[in-house]
Design a protein that fits this description.
With 229 residues, the chain is α+β, with helices and mostly antiparallel strands. 37% of the residues lie in helices and 29% in strands.
């Protein structure tokens, strides 16, 4: 009886992944890290409104790229007859899968934008308001309304600053009334609202709301709107 020929052990150089496998691995791992860092940066510079979505996508890009790269480095993978074409398909389809996931998960991981806010106060002389208001990048057009309901012994000043700290709307009044900024183009990010009392007594309402047709404030929202009707 003849025995089966013994399998020759692989030489050390035969156990090393071929060049195309190393290239595919580097593209997946390096591309995943680069895309992940870019997504995190985008989540931060847009004011954090999409940070949950971009953070999840960044984690998938980094971890997924590393895991897929490790898979291609396995001997059982690159020894397949069609391993080169499969690896190319993985490199091409991985970012496509990220894009599809972003489209599907985007509405679930991104909360609806805030469309209105109201600030009220009765500060003493020298007091007032200085607060930040986060404007969602999806908001395109907005308006500020400032209502002085009661004032005596002086005036009130106010000014609204955009994310670059440029004043976009300001005023000074000594009598009750309702004042509006008119339609303003919205810039996503942190806006700063400032109200400074120069009066003995003051009562005011500051309203912000979007006037985008596709994103209206809640139907029950009422800050100073009644005074404008």
């Amino acid at each position: 009886m003849s025995s089966a020929p013994a399998t020759r052990p692989k030489r050390l150089d035969e156990r090393v992944a071929p060049g195309w496998a190393n290239l595919s691995t580097n593209l997946l791992r390096g591309g995943g890290i680069l895309v992940g860092a870019l997504l995190l940066w985008l989540g931060i510079v847009t004011g954090g409104f999409f940070l949950l979505l971009t953070g999840v996508l960044a984690a998938i890009a980094i971890v997924g790229g590393w895991v897929l790269g490790s898979l291609i480095q396995r001997e059982g993978w690159y020894d397949r007859p069609n391993a080169r074409m499969l690896s190319l398909g993985v490199v091409v389809l991985f970012p496509v899968a990220l894009l599809v996931f972003a489209q599907v998960a985007g509405p679930l991981l991104t909360p609806a934008p805030t469309t209105a806010a109201c600030f009220k106060g009765t500060p003493a002389r020298g007091g007032g308001l200085q607060t930040q208001l986060g404007i969602d990048p999806r908001i395109k057009t907005m308006v500020f309304n400032f209502q002085v309901t009661d004032i005596s012994g002086g005036a009130v000043r106010w000014f609204v600053q955009d994310p670059t700290m440029q004043s976009r709307w300001s005023g000074r009044e000594e009598a009750p009334g309702t004042f509006t900024s008119g339609a303003l183009p919205a810039t996503g990010g942190q806006w700063t609202l400032n109200v400074i009392s120069e009066a003995d007594s003051l009562s005011y309402d500051m309203e912000w709301l979007t006037i985008d047709p596709a994103a209206q404030p809640p139907a029950d929202f009422d800050c100073v709107s009644a005074a404008l009707n």
